[in-house]
Amino acid sequence: VRQPIIAIDGPAGAGKSTVTRRVAKALNLVYLDTGAMYRAIAWLVSKSGVSLEDQGAIAELVTHAKLDFSPPTEGAPLRISINGEDVSEAIRTPEVTALVSQISAQPAVRAKLVSYQQDLGKKGGLVAEGRDIGTNVFPDAELKIFLTASVQERAKRRWLDFQDQGDGMTLEQLEQDIQQRDYRDSHRSLAPLRQAVDAIEINTDGLTIEEVTDKIIYFYQKII
Ligand code: C5P
Protein backbone atom coordinates (compact mmCIF):
# COMPACT_ATOMS: atom_id res chain seq x y z
CA VAL A 1 0.00 0.00 0.00
CA ARG A 2 1.12 3.51 -0.66
CA GLN A 3 1.80 6.17 1.96
CA PRO A 4 -0.54 9.17 2.28
CA ILE A 5 -0.48 12.11 -0.11
CA ILE A 6 -1.32 15.73 0.68
CA ALA A 7 -2.39 17.89 -2.28
CA ILE A 8 -1.98 21.65 -1.96
CA ASP A 9 -3.45 23.80 -4.73
CA GLY A 10 -4.18 27.46 -5.14
CA PRO A 11 -3.42 30.60 -7.13
CA ALA A 12 -0.02 32.28 -7.50
CA GLY A 13 1.39 33.84 -4.36
CA ALA A 14 -1.02 32.28 -1.85
CA GLY A 15 1.98 31.00 0.12
CA LYS A 16 1.96 27.42 -1.19
CA SER A 17 5.72 26.96 -1.52
CA THR A 18 6.70 28.15 1.93
CA VAL A 19 3.87 26.31 3.64
CA THR A 20 4.37 23.10 1.65
CA ARG A 21 8.07 23.05 2.50
CA ARG A 22 7.24 23.39 6.20
CA VAL A 23 4.54 20.74 6.13
CA ALA A 24 6.91 18.34 4.36
CA LYS A 25 9.57 18.90 6.98
CA ALA A 26 7.22 18.58 9.96
CA LEU A 27 5.56 15.39 8.68
CA ASN A 28 8.66 13.91 7.07
CA LEU A 29 7.07 13.82 3.61
CA VAL A 30 8.72 14.42 0.23
CA TYR A 31 7.99 17.88 -1.20
CA LEU A 32 6.91 17.88 -4.83
CA ASP A 33 7.01 21.36 -6.40
CA THR A 34 5.11 20.82 -9.66
CA GLY A 35 5.30 24.52 -10.61
CA ALA A 36 9.08 24.14 -10.84
CA MET A 37 8.54 21.46 -13.51
CA TYR A 38 6.28 23.68 -15.64
CA ARG A 39 8.82 26.46 -15.20
CA ALA A 40 11.63 24.17 -16.41
CA ILE A 41 9.66 23.41 -19.59
CA ALA A 42 8.95 27.14 -20.07
CA TRP A 43 12.67 27.82 -19.68
CA LEU A 44 13.47 25.16 -22.32
CA VAL A 45 10.92 26.55 -24.78
CA SER A 46 12.22 30.08 -24.32
CA LYS A 47 15.85 28.98 -24.74
CA SER A 48 15.08 26.98 -27.86
CA GLY A 49 13.52 29.99 -29.58
CA VAL A 50 10.44 27.98 -30.62
CA SER A 51 7.30 30.08 -31.13
CA LEU A 52 4.57 29.79 -28.47
CA GLU A 53 2.04 29.16 -31.22
CA ASP A 54 3.98 26.22 -32.61
CA GLN A 55 2.35 23.51 -30.51
CA GLY A 56 3.89 20.76 -32.64
CA ALA A 57 7.44 21.99 -32.04
CA ILE A 58 6.75 22.42 -28.32
CA ALA A 59 5.32 18.90 -28.13
CA GLU A 60 8.46 17.60 -29.84
CA LEU A 61 10.73 19.45 -27.39
CA VAL A 62 8.76 18.27 -24.37
CA THR A 63 8.51 14.64 -25.44
CA HIS A 64 12.29 14.37 -25.65
CA ALA A 65 13.07 16.49 -22.60
CA LYS A 66 14.76 14.70 -19.72
CA LEU A 67 13.80 16.10 -16.34
CA ASP A 68 15.66 15.44 -13.12
CA PHE A 69 13.97 16.58 -9.99
CA SER A 70 15.46 16.27 -6.54
CA PRO A 71 13.22 17.46 -3.73
CA PRO A 72 14.67 19.81 -1.13
CA THR A 73 16.12 18.10 1.91
CA GLU A 74 17.36 19.31 5.26
CA GLY A 75 20.08 21.78 4.38
CA ALA A 76 19.80 21.43 0.59
CA PRO A 77 17.40 23.37 -1.64
CA LEU A 78 15.34 21.87 -4.46
CA ARG A 79 17.35 21.12 -7.59
CA ILE A 80 15.84 20.72 -10.99
CA SER A 81 17.58 20.10 -14.26
CA ILE A 82 16.37 19.62 -17.79
CA ASN A 83 18.41 17.85 -20.47
CA GLY A 84 21.32 17.80 -18.05
CA GLU A 85 21.30 21.54 -17.38
CA ASP A 86 20.65 22.73 -13.82
CA VAL A 87 17.90 25.36 -14.05
CA SER A 88 17.05 25.65 -10.34
CA GLU A 89 17.73 29.39 -10.33
CA ALA A 90 16.95 30.17 -13.97
CA ILE A 91 13.30 29.07 -13.60
CA ARG A 92 12.59 31.88 -11.09
CA THR A 93 13.27 34.84 -13.39
CA PRO A 94 10.43 37.25 -14.34
CA GLU A 95 10.84 36.13 -17.99
CA VAL A 96 10.05 32.51 -17.17
CA THR A 97 7.24 33.56 -14.83
CA ALA A 98 5.68 35.66 -17.59
CA LEU A 99 5.77 32.74 -20.02
CA VAL A 100 4.90 29.74 -17.90
CA SER A 101 1.09 29.88 -17.86
CA GLN A 102 0.97 29.87 -21.66
CA ILE A 103 3.25 26.84 -21.79
CA SER A 104 1.41 24.96 -19.05
CA ALA A 105 -1.87 25.22 -20.98
CA GLN A 106 -0.53 23.03 -23.80
CA PRO A 107 -1.74 19.41 -23.88
CA ALA A 108 1.65 17.80 -24.61
CA VAL A 109 3.23 19.67 -21.72
CA ARG A 110 0.56 18.63 -19.23
CA ALA A 111 0.51 15.03 -20.44
CA LYS A 112 4.24 14.69 -19.91
CA LEU A 113 4.38 16.37 -16.51
CA VAL A 114 1.27 14.79 -15.03
CA SER A 115 2.56 11.30 -15.80
CA TYR A 116 6.01 12.23 -14.46
CA GLN A 117 4.38 13.49 -11.22
CA GLN A 118 2.19 10.41 -10.90
CA ASP A 119 5.28 8.21 -11.26
CA LEU A 120 7.05 10.13 -8.51
CA GLY A 121 3.93 9.73 -6.35
CA LYS A 122 3.43 5.98 -6.80
CA LYS A 123 4.70 5.15 -3.34
CA GLY A 124 2.98 8.13 -1.72
CA GLY A 125 4.51 9.77 1.31
CA LEU A 126 4.54 13.19 -0.26
CA VAL A 127 3.04 16.62 -0.22
CA ALA A 128 2.56 18.01 -3.73
CA GLU A 129 1.91 21.63 -4.56
CA GLY A 130 0.43 23.08 -7.77
CA ARG A 131 -2.82 23.97 -9.52
CA ASP A 132 -4.37 20.60 -10.44
CA ILE A 133 -2.98 18.22 -7.82
CA GLY A 134 -6.23 17.47 -5.99
CA THR A 135 -8.37 17.55 -9.13
CA ASN A 136 -6.18 15.77 -11.63
CA VAL A 137 -2.74 14.50 -10.58
CA PHE A 138 -3.67 12.80 -7.29
CA PRO A 139 -7.49 12.80 -7.19
CA ASP A 140 -7.41 10.19 -4.41
CA ALA A 141 -5.05 12.16 -2.14
CA GLU A 142 -5.88 11.63 1.55
CA LEU A 143 -5.88 15.37 2.27
CA LYS A 144 -6.58 18.21 -0.15
CA ILE A 145 -5.99 21.83 0.73
CA PHE A 146 -6.92 24.87 -1.36
CA LEU A 147 -4.90 27.91 -0.31
CA THR A 148 -6.22 31.34 -1.21
CA ALA A 149 -5.55 34.97 -0.34
CA SER A 150 -6.70 38.30 -1.75
CA VAL A 151 -4.81 39.61 -4.79
CA GLN A 152 -3.60 42.59 -2.70
CA GLU A 153 -2.16 40.34 -0.02
CA ARG A 154 -0.49 38.06 -2.57
CA ALA A 155 1.07 40.96 -4.47
CA LYS A 156 2.33 42.42 -1.21
CA ARG A 157 4.04 39.15 -0.27
CA ARG A 158 5.68 38.90 -3.69
CA TRP A 159 6.76 42.51 -3.41
CA LEU A 160 8.42 41.86 -0.06
CA ASP A 161 10.21 38.81 -1.55
CA PHE A 162 11.45 40.88 -4.48
CA GLN A 163 12.60 43.69 -2.18
CA ASP A 164 15.02 41.22 -0.60
CA GLN A 165 16.34 40.34 -4.05
CA GLY A 166 16.59 43.99 -5.07
CA ASP A 167 14.07 43.67 -7.90
CA GLY A 168 12.36 46.91 -8.97
CA MET A 169 8.80 45.70 -9.67
CA THR A 170 6.06 47.93 -8.27
CA LEU A 171 3.13 46.64 -6.25
CA GLU A 172 0.77 47.52 -9.12
CA GLN A 173 2.84 45.55 -11.65
CA LEU A 174 2.88 42.53 -9.37
CA GLU A 175 -0.89 42.72 -8.85
CA GLN A 176 -1.40 42.80 -12.62
CA ASP A 177 0.99 39.90 -13.21
CA ILE A 178 -0.68 37.77 -10.58
CA GLN A 179 -4.15 38.54 -11.89
CA GLN A 180 -3.15 37.71 -15.43
CA ARG A 181 -1.52 34.41 -14.45
CA ASP A 182 -4.54 33.44 -12.30
CA TYR A 183 -6.87 34.25 -15.17
CA ARG A 184 -4.89 32.09 -17.59
CA ASP A 185 -4.46 29.23 -15.10
CA SER A 186 -8.17 29.12 -14.23
CA HIS A 187 -9.56 29.61 -17.74
CA ARG A 188 -7.51 27.10 -19.71
CA SER A 189 -9.41 24.08 -21.04
CA LEU A 190 -7.10 21.40 -19.62
CA ALA A 191 -7.05 20.85 -15.85
CA PRO A 192 -7.71 24.49 -14.95
CA LEU A 193 -7.01 25.81 -11.48
CA ARG A 194 -10.04 25.07 -9.36
CA GLN A 195 -10.86 23.80 -5.91
CA ALA A 196 -11.55 20.05 -5.68
CA VAL A 197 -15.00 19.35 -4.19
CA ASP A 198 -13.38 17.53 -1.28
CA ALA A 199 -10.65 20.13 -0.63
CA ILE A 200 -10.48 22.23 2.52
CA GLU A 201 -10.14 25.92 1.72
CA ILE A 202 -7.79 28.01 3.83
CA ASN A 203 -7.80 31.76 3.25
CA THR A 204 -4.36 32.90 4.37
CA ASP A 205 -5.12 36.65 4.59
CA GLY A 206 -3.89 37.78 7.97
CA LEU A 207 -2.53 34.35 8.94
CA THR A 208 1.16 33.72 9.60
CA ILE A 209 3.10 30.95 7.86
CA GLU A 210 3.16 29.04 11.15
CA GLU A 211 -0.62 29.32 11.57
CA VAL A 212 -1.30 27.99 8.07
CA THR A 213 1.25 25.18 8.49
CA ASP A 214 -0.26 24.19 11.84
CA LYS A 215 -3.78 24.07 10.38
CA ILE A 216 -2.66 21.67 7.64
CA ILE A 217 -0.80 19.46 10.12
CA TYR A 218 -3.90 19.44 12.31
CA PHE A 219 -6.13 18.30 9.42
CA TYR A 220 -3.58 15.68 8.43
CA GLN A 221 -3.41 14.22 11.90
CA LYS A 222 -7.19 14.08 12.06
CA ILE A 223 -7.46 11.89 8.95
CA ILE A 224 -4.38 9.68 9.33
O1 C5P B 1 3.54 27.56 -8.53
P1 C5P B 1 4.31 28.29 -9.58
O2 C5P B 1 4.12 29.76 -9.56
O3 C5P B 1 5.78 27.91 -9.60
O4 C5P B 1 3.70 27.74 -10.95
C1 C5P B 1 4.09 28.28 -12.18
C2 C5P B 1 3.01 28.01 -13.24
O5 C5P B 1 3.01 26.63 -13.59
C3 C5P B 1 1.58 28.32 -12.87
O6 C5P B 1 1.26 29.68 -13.07
C4 C5P B 1 0.80 27.41 -13.82
O7 C5P B 1 0.67 27.99 -15.10
C5 C5P B 1 1.70 26.21 -13.95
N1 C5P B 1 1.29 25.09 -13.12
C6 C5P B 1 0.29 24.26 -13.57
N2 C5P B 1 -0.06 23.14 -12.87
C7 C5P B 1 0.57 22.84 -11.73
C8 C5P B 1 1.59 23.68 -11.22
C9 C5P B 1 1.92 24.81 -11.94
O8 C5P B 1 -0.30 24.52 -14.61
N3 C5P B 1 0.23 21.72 -11.07
TrEMBL record:
Signal peptide: none annotated. The lineage of its organism: Bacteria, Bacillati, Cyanobacteriota, Cyanophyceae, Oscillatoriophycideae. Residues 1-224 are annotated as: Cytidylate kinase. It is found in: Cytoplasm. Residues 6-220 form the Cytidylate kinase domain. Catalyzes the transfer of a phosphate group from ATP to either CMP or dCMP to form CDP or dCDP and ADP, respectively. The gene is panC/cmk. One of its GO terms (biological process) is pyrimidine nucleotide metabolic process. GO terms for cellular component: cytosol. Keywords: ATP-binding, Cytoplasm, Kinase, Ligase, Multifunctional enzyme, Nucleotide-binding, Pantothenate biosynthesis, Transferase. Its main location: cytoplasm. The keyword Transferase applies. It comes from Rippkaea orientalis (strain PCC 8801 / RF-1) (Cyanothece sp. (strain PCC 8801)). This is Bifunctional pantoate ligase/cytidylate kinase. Belongs to the cytidylate kinase family. Type 1 subfamily. The keyword RNA-binding does not apply. GO terms for molecular function: ATP binding; CMP kinase activity; dCMP kinase activity; pantoate-beta-alanine ligase activity.
